[in-house]
């Protein structure tokens, strides 16, 4: 589904391509070269408060039964002080540190040491060595696509341990959840700081670096486009795709095991959350090669936004539904459960088929059928930085004729399903749909700004043909 992303990056004003024959401004790829006051304020806000937001959510569940208002009320009325809340917060432990080091080491080994074999026996799956997009330095990086394999091996070992070996409890993640948070923060800040130092002193490709002159912006949004160690360890692909997303489904399984331990059953709401989010995760790994063409890989640099975000923001805030259901087990009525399941599956279908239509259109250069008909297109022309003129086509058939980002509409439907599975007792599990709505609307605007500068008047024709962004007839 939507490329999983972290705290919303600040908006930038620099284009990523050239608009119909105009001269390329410096910095026409990736993120901004210049930092305006709004971008800088956004960066400082996120650097200061994003870690606190994660801590607040997890602390609220641990100490206040997932109530988001109770800690504020307690502090405002003087019933507790910040020192009291902090004193009740579990510190990092030796067990958690060992567990986290083992986890990261295992995922690194799966990433760099075990060539993909899934593509050899799974029809339709594209894995193994694949090429990414051309970078501004003219480099075409190669990637070992083996995320599905890593996910399968990891979960196979988890189930073997849970049913046969019993080396550790299946609740081990929940039982160490806050101590593991400190370990994840340490790794997130360490890798982000290392990436910045590397960008300054020993970049993989100096031509693929960007310096804005602003320390905070460089630290958050990154300097290097594709920092690597050796030929195969790519920071961006590893931290975007592992370890956070591989852990996502394990975290949910641990929450389900804890619910079973505490209440003697796993509720249908917990099952729904596990199943629907597992579909999301498996879709990501099945289409990992396609992910090489997304904004995350093709435009974002590697800094705190991705480094810390993938280590902390993603695994801790994308799993809030499962965490909430440990503290508040919800058994849905059959109609409610069926409705949530259908909403989630419909959202996934829309998301997947929308992306499939675009992929089919691109692979065949429009020589295909969309919904049984020859696709309608908007012919476009643009000029790249080297002065070469290019031609392109924008699809206006199928789902892409309903809205310009209808894949995001499907993504939001799936996100809402996760939240609705938790009932209506608390606001906390609905953070995800609120966050995803903000994130994806921002992505719409960011992508359309890039396309308007790239295609110029042709983009205006496209907007006239497809006037809505997400919701036909509404937005």
Description:
With 475 residues, the chain is mainly alpha-helical. It has one domain. It is built from 19 helices and 6 strands. Strands 1-2 form a two-stranded antiparallel ribbon. A two-stranded antiparallel sheet has the order 3-4. The chain is globular, with a radius of gyration of 23 Å.
Shape: globular
As a percent range, the share of strand residues is: 5-15%
Biggest pleated-sheet summary:
2 strands, antiparallel
The tally of beta strands, per DSSP, is: 6
| Radius of gyration based on Cα positions | 23 Å
Low-confidence stretches: 8-29
How many distinct folded domains? 1
The H-and-E topology, N to C, reads as: HHHHEEHHHHEEHHHHHHHHEEHHH
**Could you tell me how far the N terminus lies from the C terminus, measured between alpha carbons in angstroms?**
21 Å
Count, helices: 19
Mean of residue pLDDT values: 88
- In which range does the helix fraction lie? 55-70%
Q: Structural class per helix/strand content?
A: mainly alpha
* Lateral arrangement of strands in the main beta sheet: 1-2
